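Try this one yourself first.
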């Protein structure tokens, strides 16, 4: 049974990240499954650390991007939003080139928090990084500038 509140699409997800950090790192959303979101990131010079391997921070950006996007598609956006509270990672294998693939799946989907597992794998399907992301589920109160009735003409 799908976990998604609505029917998210890869196209709308990609469009919502244009010009943001994910797009600068080349992160692409590739697949929504019944209980997962998958995406890729190229391992090129802009995501390397000085020794020429994938920077651990870039792995965390991929993990948090996938987990955060997935978390926000599980809630009713007219009433709630999800924001990251904590992320941790274990970096298990260095990668110097190619494309890594991350898959976010929930451990826990609660009324006030969510916990996501994100696995990042290399092109040979070997585990590169495992991450756990905790998201706060917040009641959504639009800012005045976001409410049509409060916008100045």
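Now uncover the answer:
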């Amino acid at each position: 049974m799908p976990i998604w509140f609505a029917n998210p699409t890869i196209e709308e997800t990609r469009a919502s990240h244009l010009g943001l950090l994910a797009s600068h790192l080349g992160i692409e959303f590739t697949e929504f499954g019944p209980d997962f979101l998958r995406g890729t990131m190229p391992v090129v010079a802009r995501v390397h650390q000085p020794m020429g391997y994938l920077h651990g921070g870039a792995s965390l950006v991929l993990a948090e991007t996938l987990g955060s996007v997935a978390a926000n598609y599980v809630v009713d956006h007219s009433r709630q939003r999800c924001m990251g509270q904590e992320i941790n990672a274990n970096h298990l294998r260095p990668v110097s080139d190619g494309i890594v693939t991350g898959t976010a799946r929930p451990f826990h989907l609660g009324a006030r928090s969510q916990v996501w597992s994100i696995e990042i794998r290399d092109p040979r399907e070997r585990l590169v990084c495992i991450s756990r992301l905790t998201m706060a589920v917040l009641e959504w109160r639009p800012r005045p500038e976001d409410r049509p009735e409060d916008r100045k003409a």
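Discussion: The chain is about 20% helix and 35% strand. The CA atoms of residues 15 and 97 lie 26 Å apart.
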